Every structure is written in C-alpha cells, then in structure tokens.
C-alpha cells in the first residue's frame, strides 16, 4: 500500500469517521481505523461495533492495499501537519510510515482482515426524507434521551414511521420530547416501522447532517440496523432490541389551564431564578394566581429568588414544582416567539408547545413531570 495524498483531504476523511471510534477499547483493533486503497479509491472506516462510519474519496494511488492503524494518533498527526501539505503513506512489514517533507512518523498496524466491517446487511425498508428535516427531528428531541439507564430501551431515540408521518420520540422517565413530520406532497412512504436508534448513533448522525440542506436522503431499515448514505459518507448503526414505552400515554390528554408566554422573557426569567435553586435537584416553583405567575427558588443555604410575570390566568391559586433544567431544555428547542403551557393540577405533567406556526410541517411537543418541593 502506497499513496501520496493532500493533508486536508486525508484529515477530512479521518474526521468523518473518528466519532465512531473509542480511544480505549477492550478490543485493540476497535481503537484502529480501517484504510483501504482499491481501484484508485480511498475508503476510511471506523466502528465500535454499535455504529459504523465509512467515508471514501477518489485518489491516484501507487499501490493498492488494506491496513488498520491507531485512529486517534493518525488524526492528531494530520491536524498538527501544515495545511496544504502532501502526505506519503506507505506500509512495510506491519508498520505504517507517514512522511511530510522532513517529518516522518511510524505507526503500528493490525491486519485489515480482522476488522469487523458491517457490509453483509439486508435492508427491507427504505424511507426518503430531506436532510434538514431529519436533522431537525433529531436535534429537537435528542436532549431528553436517557444516559446509561437500566431501562436500556430509553438510551436511544424512537423513530416511528407510519406511511407519510415520521415521529422522533425520546424520554428519560422525567420528561418526554416528541417531534413529528407530516409530508405535504400526498405521497405516502408505504412503510410502517418503529425502531430505536442508540444514543451514540443519534448524536453522530446529527453531527453529520446539514440543517440547511434540502437534499433527499434514503434511510435503509432492517430489524437490526439503520443505514444512511450522505454523499461519500455512509452511516450504519445497530438498533436497540426492545419495546419502547407507550409515549402517547405520557402526553396529557386534556388540561384545565393554558398560558401563553413570550418565550425569551420566560427563558430569561427562569435562568435568573434558577441561579439560587438547589444545585442537585434544580427545583423551581411556579405559582399561578389571578393575572400573575410567580417563579420561586431556594437552596440549602436558605438563599432564595422570586420573580413575577403578568399572564392571562384567571383560575384559583395553583403551585407546581419543576426541575428548571428540564423546562429550559424544552424552551431552548422551540424557535417561535411564544410558547404555550398546558397544565391541570400540582400533580400533573405540563405540556409545552410552540405558540406560533412551526416550519417545514414539523410539530414538536415537550412534556415535563412535576417534582415535590
């Protein structure tokens, strides 16, 4: 294996796949990156057995070959080399030699035949969706995924496809995010499937997607995997094998009260009052009274903060406690000028939606459970 390649091109290829590779792994080869030169094409692959990222580009090579080498070291070397320089890569006796002008590096390698590629997968369904729509669905919900929860099926995102309707759903048991996209061209996908994409896969896929691109992407689905091809980058992820909870049951079917708030004002007020909340529980009390909402927080040092907002509310005094971080997370993912809170009593969850019309036929809802203060 031997080639000369632009440092910028190689760095771009490595950066495309490095997110799939752990710096430390019990299997040494999974700390490596897979490099293949075949038919004047460079393919770079990274995997942790859960997700795989593959990137390829056309090159002119001197010799073909396959090799794996330590991923993060070759990436850091490329980052440290001068921009616009050219790198010579050459293998000899199970070593990879990297040279640029008067700089030379020798890296260890492992056999490419031992690298666990995810090539032999049969996909039964295909869903086509615009790139910016998919990114919006992921970004609007990913923050409420569980992290290392014993309920393993919560450590991911539910993608629920029902013909022309796609829903992205996440929950950690304390809050729920649901974003749905309804196609507006009267053409159905012809697919009904529910899959759970693991947390790391969701975050890496979102990183790869461009929120300004309206290019259609194909989502290839099987019972165990999802695959997306974006130009010369291929993303593949295993799916979580489990049954997602009935998220519809967590959405309040009705509410006794609804209050529309100016989004930025409410967010800023919450942020100020949160400064003196308990650092561990982040509790804040919302008190709804005739025409006024009071926000109150306190902490173990007996410090406190209180602010008032004028609102359109004419019911009896009602007090509800929330984790202020959960409220702020939801508000920060709504892009309209106003938001609407739907609630009934101190023990019921609050439903948060956009107060105006959302774009791209996407509707997003957030549910936050109350806490006792």
The CATH superfamily of the largest domain appears as DNA Polymerase III, subunit A, domain 2
Q: And the CATH topology of the largest domain?
A: DNA Polymerase III, Chain A, domain 2
Shape: elongated
Number of beta-strand segments? 25
Indicate the percent of residues in helices.
10-25%
Proportion in β-strands: 35-45%
Q: What is the averaged pLDDT score?
A: 94
CATH class of the largest domain: Alpha Beta
Quick structural overview:
By secondary structure, the protein is α+β, with helices and mostly antiparallel strands.
Record keyword descriptors for this entry:
373 residues; alpha+beta; DNA Polymerase III, Chain A, domain 2; 13-stranded antiparallel sheet; 8-stranded antiparallel sheet
Give a description of the structure.
By secondary structure, this protein is an alpha+beta fold. It folds into three domains: 2-114, DNA Polymerase III, Chain A, domain 2; 125-248, DNA Polymerase III, Chain A, domain 2 (Roll); 251-368, Roll (DNA Polymerase III, Chain A, domain 2), CATH 3.10.150.10. Helix content is 16%, strand content 43%. It contains six helices and 25 strands. The chain has helices at residues 7-17, 71-80, 131-139, 199-208, 263-274, 324-332, and strands spanning 2-6, 32-38, 41-47, 51-58, 61-63, 65-70, 86-91, 95-100, 103-110, 125-130, 156-162, 165-171, 175-182, 192-198, 216-221, 225-230, 233-238, 257-262, 283-289, 292-298, 304-310, 318-323, 338-343, 350-354, 362-368. Strands 5-1-7-8-9-6-2-3-4-17-16-15-10 form a 13-stranded antiparallel β-sheet. Strands 14-11-12-13-25-24-23-18 form an eight-stranded antiparallel β-sheet. Strands 21-20-19-22 form a four-stranded antiparallel β-sheet. It is elongated and about 80 Å long. The protein starts with a strand and ends in a 5-residue tail after the last strand.
